[in-house]
Backbone:
């Protein structure tokens, strides 16, 4: 999948020893939060646009006007028009909602099911653990796109299927993360202490272990979310996501491709929207990681 | 001295001109086509993509359709009809060989036609041959075909791609490596990329074909087609060129654009057996709610002619009914209310994935119908699925498709055809037309048939699929109209 | 080491079995009767039933699966329903597109990513580092198919240097084939290059922190020597394992890229086969690709374990 990083959250380490020419302290602090700032800015702006599009768009994203097809950017149509004369800007705005929702729900599915499976695996151990982890390996080994293709072949294309398919793709990551953290935390002092004080298994899991897994889970979610957006765009580009006439960034790019010569701007704006969304989420994620994992939050 | 110089220069000039103008022997022509055929056997699949590659190039019939739309003799050297129209006597050309070396005989014709008739074969149009009562082989080159009753369409049907004569021993390979009698033989099929045909040296007409090799390259993306043409990777964009590309190429002196008519009737088909489409008022309402001009603008850049019934302007019996239903959304809403749907209704519009123009038309239609309360859910399905679900099982409400076969109005007489239209009056008219050998009488009957179909609003008749071909100026003798779905390159030549 | 290897090998076998089962079952749930699609529009009910029996579609799922698995293990993946050609042959005919594409993309990734990552680490926090970090952030964010479209726009349509799609066979002109693969490889490798840059930089920085590097520095060794001799060697461990994992991403990404550039590779074969309900082809391709990825992941695990002894005794 484009854009995915290796298994767990990749951490950019910082050198403990500052190089010879040390930078002034305030500049370092600004650098530290730059990611977060830009990330919040971009993502926030996109989120606002997406929400706003539910109430207002410059034009009706579905209104066709065949005499105005394939125009470049103009005063009336800031992003130009598509092959049916529909306003590209309005469609890009509405498509933002699609991307965001698919991303959220897909990651949500992956998280919930993954955590459950990881917990079960870690708790029961033995055979269940082995089988579940092999299943995760098998799932992890499946090229995600192929899995989505098969699913849409079974259930038909559409937004719901994209969510489910991408959600399933995310399960192994969360499952493994949960299991690893679970196993590690199980041996920790505070858990042993709680057990000695007579806490039952359920109580141990819910009140002691889970809260400590939340942090790495959230970090992983901030990585999976932009990947989910990219995955949805890819599926839509192949024609497997949201069906016409409803716009999604991916299917707009697919429709723009035959017109690359005639109306290049048509292919540029939706793609730029995807890049902005992913960039913003990546930066936001980086920034959140800095905040949530203070051990790693050093001036970079 | 001067004289020799002048002589030499004249000679040099003329030879260069000669070389430039004379078709160069041994040339390879590369043609871009948008869709890869699902096999190369025209006798078991209705896909026009097959005919485009094999018709007249690889496989030949007793007769064929030529560039002017006339039915002319191909494998048959001569034929005659008995007075009562029931017995056709054929004499085959001498010296015709199949690509694998064996000579063509009358037994091959008998085998082919009997196989076409056999239900187990799965021929898409057995009805073409249903009237055949008996095929009698007289000798290696002569045979008779006896019909149960006179059939005016019989010779034309023999000229179609699915009537090509095949060799019995090569039947198994038809799908992937067809053996025929055409001027080109099958050379190679790289799945997903290209099909290569090469000159058949033992072809019965000496000097034909002009080309040494023909390569059909599958390039679905219009931009890629244009880029390939400009880069010289292909010489011709052979069919379904993107209309926007046609407009662009017309201004470029290095290329030639052919704009003509085809036999493709592009229609928005409705499932006449399924309510609410079974109600004539609903079908009429849908026809009134569609703005054909906008559809033509959006789907084919305005480069097509509207039609009003299921016949193309190239057909001698064509009558122009395109102005029959004007764009009148108010009338549509009225009719819907009368039929009991004042709020409209929802339905599914299934569109076949590979055909960009029809998909666009479908989206525009959905947009227009929404304005009168008819909400379409668009489902884009793959071609195989379309063939299976829509075409075979009639599992659909509405779809958009182009019907490329010429003179195929007979499909309306088949109640099992995917329109599921059942009109005994129409069947009677068509049967009468088939049986009549009087051209004027037939013309009048076919006009009645066209009007009947239009009045019954069986489908929404959109436009005649435009024939748009772009090529370099070095390619010559390309068909200027498309009276039958084909890319007949038997007469095409290429200069340097 | 032996019991560890054995356990891992068993795990691999189990995973592959699960993969094959999932592939087989999922494909069978897909609606659309393959017999109908083969016979097309005029298949009579008897002919359909006969064909279904011939294809073995009327036997219980499990017995079909066992049969299929048995044949697959000997290399017989069945015959394509659309093309009437053995599936194995179809797959091998597409490899000359997908393999070179993946290989080219991988090479471009390494050529671009590694040196830039090392450079960024060496010039840590100076303008070139910051610039590279910004660029790589952009690189990760750009979807590969959009990158492909932009590349087509610039290099094929505007400048005309490279083809906008399609594939010239190797047999025709090797140069032509390379030209058709260049833009797709760049589009595919771009994102991976950005990731590689960041990971290399991170790995290098991590290593540069280590005590033994400080020791080398304090011994007075030049920065460059420190960098190359010590940091690079050890930082590369992470990088190499990352490259192994990227093969999976490359194979998956090639499905989309092959679509953008209309390349007749494995990806488009799979897509087309799903559309045509060509079950043997879908099963064959998915099985092959998934097996390759699982095996590569497994190999990477082993390699990582061998290179980094801390992990081995897990």
Residues:
């Amino acid at each position: 999948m484009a854009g995915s990083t290796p298994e767990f959250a990749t951490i950019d380490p910082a050198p403990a020893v500052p190089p010879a020419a040390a930078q002034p302290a305030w500049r370092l602090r600004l650098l530290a939060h730059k990611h977060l700032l830009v990330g919040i800015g971009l993502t926030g702006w996109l989120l606002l646009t997406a929400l706003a599009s539910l109430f207002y768009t410059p034009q009706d994203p579905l209104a066709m006007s065949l005499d105005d097809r394939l125009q470049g950017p103009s005063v009336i149509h800031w992003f130009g028009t598509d092959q049916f004369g529909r306003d590209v800007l309005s469609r890009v705005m509405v498509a933002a909602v699609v991307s965001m929702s698919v991303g959220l729900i897909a990651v949500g599915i992956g998280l919930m099911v993954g955590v459950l499976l990881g917990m079960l695996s870690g708790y029961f151990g033995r055979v269940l653990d082995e089988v579940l982890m092999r299943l995760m390996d098998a799932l992890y080994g499946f090229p995600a796109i192929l899995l989505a293709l098969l699913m849409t072949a079974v259930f038909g294309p559409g937004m719901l299927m994209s969510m489910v398919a991408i959600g399933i793709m995310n399960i192994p990551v969360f499952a493994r993360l949960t299991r690893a953290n679970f196993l590690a935390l199980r041996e920790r002092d505070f858990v042993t202490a709680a057990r000695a004080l007579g806490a039952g298994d359920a109580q141990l899991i819910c009140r002691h272990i889970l809260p400590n897994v939340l942090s790495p889970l959230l970090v992983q979610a901030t990585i999976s979310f932009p990947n989910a957006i990219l995955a949805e765009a890819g599926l839509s580009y192949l024609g497997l996501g949201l069906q016409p006439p409803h716009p999604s960034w991916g299917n707009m790019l697919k429709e723009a491709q035959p017109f690359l010569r005639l109306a290049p701007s048509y292919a540029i704006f939706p793609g730029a929207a995807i890049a902005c969304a992913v960039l913003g989420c990546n930066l936001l994620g980086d920034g959140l990681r800095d905040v949530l994992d203070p051990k790693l939050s050093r001036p970079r | 001295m001067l004289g020799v110089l002048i002589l030499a220069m004249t000679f040099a000039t003329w030879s260069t001109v000669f070389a430039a103008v004379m078709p160069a022997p041994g040339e390879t022509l590369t043609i871009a086509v948008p869709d890869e055929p699902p096999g190369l056997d025209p006798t078991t699949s209705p896909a026009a993509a097959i005919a485009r590659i094999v018709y007249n190039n690889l496989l030949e019939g007793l007769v064929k359709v030529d560039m002017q739309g006339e039915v002319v003799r191909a494998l048959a050297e001569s034929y005659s009809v008995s007075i009562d129209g029931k017995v056709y006597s054929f004499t085959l050309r001498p010296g015709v060989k199949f690509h694998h070396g064996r000579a063509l005989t009358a037994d091959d014709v008998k085998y082919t036609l009997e196989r076409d008739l056999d239900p187990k074969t799965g021929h898409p149009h057995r009805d073409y041959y249903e009237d055949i009562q008996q095929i009698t082989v007289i000798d290696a080159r002569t045979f008779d075909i006896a019909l149960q009753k006179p059939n005016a369409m019989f010779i034309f049907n023999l000229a179609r791609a699915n009537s090509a004569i095949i060799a019995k021993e090569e039947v198994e390979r038809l799908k992937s490596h067809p053996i025929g009698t055409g001027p080109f033989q099958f050379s190679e099929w790289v799945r997903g990329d290209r099909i290569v045909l090469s000159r058949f040296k033992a072809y019965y007409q000496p000097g034909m074909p002009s080309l040494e090799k023909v390569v059909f390259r599958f390039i679905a993306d219009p931009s890629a087609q244009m880029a390939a043409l400009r880069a010289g990777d292909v010489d011709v964009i052979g069919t379904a060129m993107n209309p926007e590309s046609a407009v662009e190429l017309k201004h470029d002196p290095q290329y030639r654009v052919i704009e003509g008519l085809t036999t493709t009737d592009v229609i928005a088909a409705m499932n006449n057996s399924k309510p609410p489409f079974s109600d004539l008022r609903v079908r009429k309402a849908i026809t009134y709610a569609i703005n054909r001009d906008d559809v033509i603008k959006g789907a084919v850049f305005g480069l097509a002619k509207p039609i009003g019934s299921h016949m193309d302007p190239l057909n001698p019996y064509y009558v122009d009914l395109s102005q029959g239903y004007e764009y009148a959304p108010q009338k549509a809403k009225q009719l819907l209310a009368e039929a009991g749907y004042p709020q409209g209704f929802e339905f599914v519009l299934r569109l076949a994935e590979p055909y960009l123009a029809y998909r666009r038309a479908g989206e525009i239609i959905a947009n227009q119908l929404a304005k009168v309360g008819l909400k379409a859910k668009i489902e884009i399905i793959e071609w195989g699925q379309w063939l299976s679900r829509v075409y075979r099982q009639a599992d659909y409400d509405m779809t958009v498709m182009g019907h490329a076969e010429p003179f195929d109005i007979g499909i309306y007489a088949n109640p099992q055809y995917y329109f599921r239209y059942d009109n005994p009056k129409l069947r009677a008219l068509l049967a009468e037309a088939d049986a009549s050998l009087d051209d004027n009488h037939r013309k009048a009957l076919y006009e009645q048939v066209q009007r009947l179909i239009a009045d019954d609003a069986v489908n929404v008749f959109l436009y005649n699929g435009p024939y748009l071909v772009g090529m370099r100026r070095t390619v010559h003798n390309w068909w200027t109209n498309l009276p039958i779905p084909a890319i007949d390159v038997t007469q095409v030549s290429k200069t340097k | 080491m032996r019991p560890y290897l054995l356990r891992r090998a068993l795990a691999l076998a189990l995973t592959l079995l699960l993969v094959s089962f999932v592939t087989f079952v999922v494909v069978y749930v897909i609606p659309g009767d393959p017999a109908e699609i083969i016979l097309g529009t005029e298949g009579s009910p008897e002919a359909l039933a006969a064909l279904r029996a011939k294809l073995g579609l009327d036997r219980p799922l499990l017995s079909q699966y066992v049969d299929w698995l048995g044949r697959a293990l000997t290399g017989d993946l069945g015959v394509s329903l659309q093309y009437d050609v053995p599936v194995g042959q179809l797959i091998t005919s597409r490899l000359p597109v997908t393999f070179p594409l993946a290989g080219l993309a991988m090479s471009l990734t390494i050529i671009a990513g590694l040196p830039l990552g090392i450079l960024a680490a060496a010039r840590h926090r100076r303008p070139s580092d910051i610039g590279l970090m910004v660029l790589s952030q952009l690189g990760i964010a750009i979807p590969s198919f959009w990158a492909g479209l932009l590349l087509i726009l610039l290099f094929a349509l505007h400048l005309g240097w490279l083809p906008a799609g399609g594939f010239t066979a190797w047999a025709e002109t090797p140069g032509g084939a390379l030209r058709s693969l260049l833009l797709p490889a760049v589009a595919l490798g771009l994102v991976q290059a950005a990731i590689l840059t960041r990971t290399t930089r991170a790995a290098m920085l991590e290593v540069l922190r280590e005590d033994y590097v400080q020791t080398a520095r304090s011994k007075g060794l030049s920065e460059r020597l420190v960098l190359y001799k010590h940091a690079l060697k050890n930082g590369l461990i992470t990088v190499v394992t990352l490259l192994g994992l990227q093969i999976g991403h490359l194979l998956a990404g090639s499905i989309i890229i092959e679509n953008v550039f209309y390349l007749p590779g494995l990806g488009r074969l799979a897509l087309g086969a799903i559309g045509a309900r060509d079950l043997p082809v879908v099963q064959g391709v998915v099985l092959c690709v998934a097996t390759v990825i699982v095996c590569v992941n497994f190999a990477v695990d082993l390699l990582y374990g061998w290179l980094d002894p801390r992990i081995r005794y897990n």
Observations:
- The interface with chain B takes residues 62, 64, 66-67, 69-70, 83-84, 156-157, 239, 243-245, 257-262 of chain A (CB under 8 Å).
- The longest helix of chain A spans residues 88-124.
